[in-house]
Amino acid sequence: MKIISYSLSLAFLIVLLQIATGCNNKENSEKEMSAPKAEKKDTTLTIHGHSRVDPYYWLRDRENPEVIAYLESENEYTDNLLAHTNELQDSLFEEMKGRIKERDQSAPIKSNGYWYYSRYEENKEYPIYCRKKETLESEEEIILDANKMAEGHEYFNVAGLEVSPNNKLLAFGADTVSRRLYTLYIKNLETGELLPVTVANTSPGYAWADDNENIFYTSKNTETLLSEKVYRHNINEQNDELVYEEKDQSFYIGVYREKTGEYIIIWNSSTTTSDYHLLKSNNPEGEFKQFTKRTPGHEYNIFPDQDKFWIISNKDALNFKLMSTSQIGSDIDQWNTEVSHRKDVLLENMEVFEDHLVFEERYNGLTHLKVRNKKTKKEYEIKFDENAYITGIGSNDVYDTDVLRFYYSSLTTPFSHFDYNVETNERTLIKQQEVVGEYSKENYETERISIKSRDGVEIPVSLVYKKGYKKNGNGPLLLYGYGSYGNTIDPYFGSARLSLLDRGFCFAIAHVRGSQLKGREWYEEGKMFKKQNTFNDFVDVAKGLIEEKYTSPEHLYAMGGSAGGLLMGTVINQAPELFNGVVAAVPFVDVVTTMLDESIPLTTNEFDEWGNPKNKDSYEYMLSYSPYDQVKRQDYPNLLVTTGLHDSQVQYWEPAKWVAKLRDYKTDKNLLLLKTNMEAGHGGASGRFESLKETALEYAFLLDLENKSL
């Protein structure tokens, strides 16, 4: 017995030693694992008599095993250095997932005699698309279960669902790679069978003709990913007919069936110019007619009505005006002006009903909804109480109705869908995003403040924090920004964000120039040769928040993705001392090299946003801020960079090259981490909950930095 007892005691001590040693080894491995070093293979790039040496150009080859090995070594390094946050990541993931109602349903939308909606079931990642005939009390019909189609795929996305006019066929696109190349499928809703013919490499936008046999789709170039051609596909024939080809590579194109059902419309749009071609839906084999001559710099949208077309146009109107015409093919000078241009009001969108028009306008930094009676021309605005919010026109497929569907949200109000009777002003809440748990908006505060940029322009900032947040300079604050393409980041609700707010963070959005928050001029002042304004605005907002004691450099963090990642890359080159940590998601950081290579997806569409570096003045200006080219020998903040191997918008090699160069140049010992999703693209992981793991990683990175700074 003594021998047995002694053996057990010895074994117990050995186990304790192993546990202790294991912990120490884990800590040591996190500290001692050396950062990956990408091999330098110099490539000289010369234009305009100027040469740049790019040692990491070789990382562009996705098929090269060395490239994959490097990306995987970066992933291993990131996993190792953040291993001590694994428990926190798991906790954050479960916490964020726990706020989402697993068995949930979207707001139902009425269209052509059916109510359409999608719903989720417990423990399933993808939506189930359903409909009910005539009333919501009718029997449910499942038209597509994305969970079944996703089986066997690491990534899956379904989009562009379009039901034929006779309600018997469903067209939809499916992407299993995350390159935004969708395969067109057609499903017989009566038998449940998929038709045998599919079409690869399409955009997820399809338009049925009245005959329920012909459907129009847009095909994409598999190298540049540009949408270039529109085809007519007859479900009873093998060969598709080309009906339109876009020759100008600066244009995106697509096709849709408009609300009244009278027309099938091909849209063409560059950054600065619009174009449309129309075909009667009852004449699928006819010829598309151009709405008006394509004019450089003329941007417009068309909205067919019973006897006319409403047009939102920027002709002699920076913030757009409302025009109309009754004829296809008429000259712009023949159009009628219905609502004149207003310097302080941006006309963004509209909806057409039988007796009313509804306008989506932006002024004072907020979106407003305005209702207009067609006959009396009397107008009124739908009012909201909060000082910062997002609202907009929702899905309205019914023409002869007095009910408008719109959405609303704020930094503390979950996304809500309302039906609004434009005659009685009665507002009915149809669906509000449910936050599972004990969420109460009364526990949080929002603010809308302005901070002056260096040129005297007031930059709006939206903030949200949990009550009790102290403005003494010691509070952690995450500053978010984007500022490109006229895309406005409005103050919307995010349930995942609560995991930061509940841990003491303030979340702020810097509404920098390059968006359209304060009208079209706000966009024009943040693009092309005025792009530096975007970066200055963000830096000056950061400084202003520090001066106002919302935070301090030791507790200030920044985040942005895609073009917002460009923003992150530039500001940490120009003002690295302001931030303790930065998250750059799928960042566009190799601006000049990418924009010089027209074989890279979507490059040619961007010339009017950034400039064409084949022109010397554009080259020099873009080079002056390009994050990759302007990396310096200086201290940088802690940095987490994320990308996707199959990213269709910003190629993975941009962040990979950037991180490699930063490793070589930076003079600090701060974290520099690259995480590549080897299965996903620009939007990250697919599925309802999988993407939360990426958010959990980002939040754990920030929370861990903040914990170390205390």
UniProtKB/TrEMBL annotation:
Residue ranges constituting the Peptidase S9 prolyl oligopeptidase catalytic domain according to the UniProt record: 496-704
Sample GO molecular function, one term: serine-type endopeptidase activity
Gene3D superfamilies: alpha/beta hydrolase, Prolyl oligopeptidase, N-terminal domain
Superkingdom field: Bacteria
Pfam family, one: Peptidase_S9_N
Keywords of the record: Hydrolase, Protease, Serine protease, Signal
Protein family membership: Belongs to the peptidase S9A family.
Role description: Cleaves peptide bonds on the C-terminal side of prolyl residues within peptides that are up to approximately 30 amino acids long. Has an absolute requirement for an X-Pro bond in the trans configuration immediately preceding the Pro-Y scissible bond.
Name this protein carries in UniProt: Proline-specific endopeptidase
Organism: Mangrovivirga cuniculi
